[in-house]
Structures are given as C-alpha cells and as structure tokens.
C-alpha cells in the first residue's frame, strides 16, 4: 500500500495514485458510486438537496446589487403561484412554461391574487444546491435577463420534490412580478424569459390603466433647525426617507435626505440612541444618502441627521418602524370526519391573509378573531399541502403541513449498527467530497516526499493534473452543478 501512495526508489518515484490511470479509475468509481447512491435515493424515496428559497432570493438580490438595481421583495402571492406551478408540473407530468392544457405562468400568478404589469418565470430541475441552480440561470442570457431586469419589484420561489417522468427530483420555480410600472426604458420581459412568448402575451394582454397620481400628502412638522449663517444664506438639513411613523419590512433601508446651502462634501452624522451610527457626505444637488452596516432593529427606530457649520448644528429627526419578521402560526389542527378534513389555523394578531396551496389550487381563507377555517374533501386532497400566512405589511411564512393529513414513516435516513446514521439525501455529495479529500491527502503526502527527494520540479506536471481533478470534483460536490433549466 505504501508503494501505491508514497514515491520511493522501489516504485521509481512514480506511485500508482499519482498516475493518470489512477485518476481514470477514481473517476469511474465516483460515477458508479453516485449512480448507486441514486438507486438508494429512489428506493428510500428521498431527494438530494441543499436548497432553500431564502438563499435563492439572496443570490438574486446580490446579482442585482452589483448592477445598482433595487432588491426584489419576497412576495407571498408569487411564492404561492410558484408552488402551484411546481405542483401542477408534477401532477400533469410536464416540464415546460406552458402546461398541456395551455396553462401559462400568468395563470398561476393571477390565480394567486397578484395583479401584475410585468411578470416572469425561471425554471430549474435536478439541482442539489441553491448556488447550482442560480449559477445555471446566470449562465443563460434569457434567464439572467429576468434576474437582473429593472422591471421587477417582487419575487417568489418554490422548491418542491416529486416524481417527474419516472424520475424523483426537485423542481425550482422562480417567479418575478411588478404591480406598478417602473420608470425604465428597458423592454419588458414577461414570461419564461423568451422574447417570442413575450410578443404573444403582449398581443393578448389588455393595456393596464394608468396609475393615478397619489394625493398630495401633508408636510410633516419638521424638527430640523435652519437659520441664517454668517454668510447670510439660510441653511437646513432634512430627512426625506424613511418617513415619519411609517412601517417598513426591509431592515436595511437607507436614510436619504437633502440639504440647503451646504457645500458638496460636507459631513453629515447619523445619530441613533445618542451614539454616532455613521457618517455620509453631501452630494451633488444637495442630496445625501446613508446606509447602515447593520440591520435596523425590529420595532421603533429613532434617528437624527446632524451637520455642523461655524460651531452651529443643523439637524432633523425621524421616527420609523421595522417589521421584517414573518407572522407567527400559533396552532394548526386538522380533523378528519365523514370524508372531509376540517382545518383550523390560529395566527397572530398582525396576520391578514391565510391560504392553502394544494397541488395547483390556492384556497384563500378568512381570518376571524385570529382563526381561519378550511374544509377540504378527501378526494380533493393533493400529495402536498402548504400553508401561507401573510401579515398586513407583506411579510409571510410558508409551511409544509402535508403531515397533518397523512401519517408517514420517517424518511431520509437509515441506521447501521444502530448508531451510525447516514442522510441519504447527502450520499452523492458525501461520496464525492470523501474521494476529493482522499486525493488531496495523497497529493500533500507526495509533495512532502518529492520535496524531500528534490524531485518536486520534475513531477510538477503530474501534480497539476491531480490538482485540477481534485478542484473540479470538490467544486462540483459543493455547488451541485447537475441539473436542467428552462
């Protein structure tokens, strides 16, 4: 075994595991092992995944931030539409933006109660990580156009497992939308990202009515100090965003304002709880903006913007609120009687909407005294049931409540000798990481011995080959590069 790994005179400084033949054998072993683990996954009825919708939304907004675009807000209606679309593909066994009966992405979006001006959809299947499906979308110009489109303001993502054309896999549906027309000259991209479909949709969609201008709001009484300075000019500072006593769902909102008769580059301090939170500068056109490196706290926030000139301080203050946490589901009770399921959902006070997603159907419920009731016939029950609760600020929580309707055996793991547990959903990744780590270990051992025998330069070509092999497999194991987008 030593001669297979460690270079020495006995093996002519050419151990078996540093040869190209060894790399070919190891590669074949990985392919066979992953195929075998796929059989295990299918046998145990579980799915390999390291994905979640919040991470996909985060990656999307990171791409948009790089281009100076607004972050997309997670929307409960779009998330419901995405779930309904994924379930519909599993139920009717198709992989397309349009269903066998002409079902379009817009049908699901409108069915969720989201009235849009612009809408779009990205699809992915067979991926095992959020990064994998996101990178695949970004590598496709049409899918990337949806992710970085200035026409969108909201996003909803669904990650649903099931069986499609005899294969157990995961479908990812990413839906985009905008309820109001944004100020942009970009051509609208509506649909699955294909321009031909947009042309069809534009021909059939009625032109939206112009959005009426908002009624003028009363000027809030400002606490800012202004007055004539020594140069005879009236100076002032004002916070224009966030607005007084308004609640926001984004805990990272910027502070924006304007000044009068201050030079560009003058320093503005942002003060919170009697401490300087940070500084910014007056920009052109007497405007300024400050972005905190930390989230604003949940609840009330009170800040001051202060600028000094000739030993005088000019300031403005604003009080605003942050509500970014989703509404809490206090209790779920499901009773089965005479061919019906009676569902009672208790929610917290701020909850405004409660809905069930069953397959491609979205059932909306009324909230009375913090309780929402549903009645579902047994024959109407789908394989998956999701509960979506939205508060009056647009925050929402989404839960898979399928287990409330069907008693299921625990899936996803098996035990060896009663104490070693393997998560089947990670078998493929575990095998690849294990082998890649093994190859790295061999590489390091050989570097040590070649260096000791002063043969490192002579063997650098083989090390480059082994190193590239190791990086490709390790990268693939963490990114989850396999999958299909549409």
Which helices and strands occur, and which strands form pairs?
Blueprint lengths: L1 H4 L14 H25 L8 H14 L6 E2 L1 H17 L12 H7 L6 E8 L4 H10 L1 H7 L6 E11 L2 E12 L16 H10 L22 E2 L5 E8 L5 E2 L6 E6 L6 E6 L2 E7 L5 E4 L8 E11 L2 E11 L6 E9 L2 E8 L3 E8 L2 E5 L5 E7 L7 E7 L4 E5 L12 E4 L3 E4 L3 H26 L7 H20 L4 E2 L1
Parallel strand pairs: 1-3, 7-13
Antiparallel strand pairs: 2-4, 2-23, 3-4, 5-6, 6-8, 8-11, 9-10, 9-12, 12-13, 14-15, 15-18, 16-17, 16-19, 19-20, 21-22
Describe the structure.
The two termini are 48 Å apart. With 486 residues, this protein is α+β, with helices and mostly antiparallel strands. A 5-stranded mixed β-sheet has the order 1-3-4-2-23, with helices on both faces. Strands 7-13-12-9-10 form a 5-stranded mixed β-sheet, with no helix packed on it. Helix 3 (53-66) runs parallel beside helix 6 and helix 9 packs antiparallel against helix 10 (460-479). The chain is 29% helix and 31% strand. The protein is flat. The protein is built from 10 helices and 23 strands.
Radius of gyration: 29 Å
What gross morphology would you assign? Answer: flat
Alpha-carbon distance between the two ends: 48 Å
Strand arrangement within the widest β-sheet reads: 1-3-4-2-23
Biggest sheet architecture: 5 strands, mixed
Keywords:
single chain, 486 residues, alpha+beta, five-stranded mixed beta sheet, 29% helix, flat
Structure at a glance:
The chain has 486 residues and is of the alpha+beta class.
């Amino acid at each position: 075994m030593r001669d297979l790994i460690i270079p020495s005179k006995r093996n002519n400084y050419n151990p078996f595991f540093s040869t190209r033949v060894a790399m070919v054998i190891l590669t074949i072993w990985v392919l066979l092992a992953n195929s075998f683990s796929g059989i295990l996954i299918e046998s145990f009825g579980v799915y390999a995944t390291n994905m979640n919708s919040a991470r996909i939304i985060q990656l999307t907004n990171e791409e948009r931030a790089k281009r100076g675009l607004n972050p997309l807000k997670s929307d409960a209606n779009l998330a419901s539409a995405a779930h309904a679309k994924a379930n519909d593909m599993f139920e009717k066994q198709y992989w397309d933006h349009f269903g066998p009966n002409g079902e379009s992405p817009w049908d699901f979006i409108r069915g969720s109660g989201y009235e849009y001006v612009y809408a779009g959809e990205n699809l992915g299947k067979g991926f095992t990580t959020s990064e994998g499906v996101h990178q695949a979308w970004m590598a496709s110009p049409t899918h990337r156009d949806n992710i970085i489109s200035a026409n969108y303001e909201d996003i909803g993502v669904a990650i649903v497992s099931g069986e499609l054309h005899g294969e157990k896999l995961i479908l990812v549906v990413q839906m985009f939308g905008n309820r109001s027309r944004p100020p942009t000259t970009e051509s609208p991209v509506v649909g699955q990202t294909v321009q031909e479909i947009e042309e069809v949709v534009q021909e059939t969609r009625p032109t939206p009515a112009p959005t009426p201008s908002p009624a003028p709001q009363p000027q809030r009484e400002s606490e800012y100090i202004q007055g004539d300075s020594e140069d005879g000019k009236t100076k002032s500072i004002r916070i224009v965003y966030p607005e007084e006593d308004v609640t926001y769902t984004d805990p990272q909102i910027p502070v924006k304002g304007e000044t009068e008769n201050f030079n560009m580059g003058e320093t503005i301090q942002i003060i919170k709880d009697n401490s300087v939170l940070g500084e910014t500068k007056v920009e052109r056109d007497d405007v300024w903006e400050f972005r905190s490196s930390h989230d604003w706290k949940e609840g009330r926030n009170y800040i001051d913007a202060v600028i000094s000139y000739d030993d005088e301080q000019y300031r403005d203050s604003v009080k605003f609120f942050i509500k970014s946490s989703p509404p809490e589901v206090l209790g779920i009770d499901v009773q089965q009687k005479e061919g019906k399921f009676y569902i009672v959902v208790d929610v917290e006070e701020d909850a405004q909407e409660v809905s069930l997603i069953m397959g491609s159907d979205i059932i909306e419920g009324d909230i009375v005294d913090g309780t929402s009731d549903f009645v579902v016939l047994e024959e109407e029950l789908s394989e998956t049931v999701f509960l979506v609760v939205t508060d009056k600020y647009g925050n929402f929580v989404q839960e898979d409540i399928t287990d409330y309707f069907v008693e299921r055996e625990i899936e996803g793991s098996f035990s060896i000798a009663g104490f070693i547990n393997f998560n089947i959903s990670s078998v493929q990744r575990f095998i690849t990481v294990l082998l890649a780590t093994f190859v790295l270990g061999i590489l390091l051992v050989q570097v040590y011995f070649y260096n000791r025998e002063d043969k490192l330069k002579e063997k650098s070509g083989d090390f480059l080959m082994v190193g590239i092999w190791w990086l490709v497999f390790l990268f693939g194991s963490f990114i989850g590069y396999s999958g299909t987008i549409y």
